[in-house]
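Batch queue: ligand-bound targets. Current item pairs a single chain with zinc ion. No template structures supplied; prediction is de novo from sequence plus SMILES. Inputs echoed for audit trail.
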Amino acid sequence: MIHELTMIDAQDFPKIPGITNYGSHNDMPEPFKEITPDEFWHYFGIYGTGRFDEFKQVKFDDGQANMYRNIHILWYQSCGMAIMSPVHWRCRRPDDGEGYQIIYEDQPRFFRLGCDHDYFEYDREYANEHGLPYTSGRCYHNTVCTKCGHVGSYDSSD
Ligand SMILES: [Zn+2]
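Prediction returned. Tokens below.
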């Protein structure tokens, strides 16, 4: 796989539902919520690598160490997912004495960025009442978030 670094203008970046502050290079976007590795992999399995990737070094105070942490953000249409690199690591000489190994002493952490959506499925009548888009189809589902109003749709193919 080839990755190409492409600079985009800030105005070309999509507005992610629920993000109230993207922050500077040293700020975690807000709001954010720590999620479990299982939750992260569930979303990653559904959404993949995201439309835009972003790297930041955020000042993060978790009560243990107020220091800069590397994060990689996968930006999707409806949220962001951040992976925070482990902070504590050391080098050691492997048992065979060749070279060095990096040993991480803590685990990566995962965060969901933006609205913690609470979607409900609506029908044509609800769409007309509320001015929402509606796509009909046998397996088509139209959804709206009760918190931020993000409208989505998906084809369940069932
Ligand atoms: Zn929402």
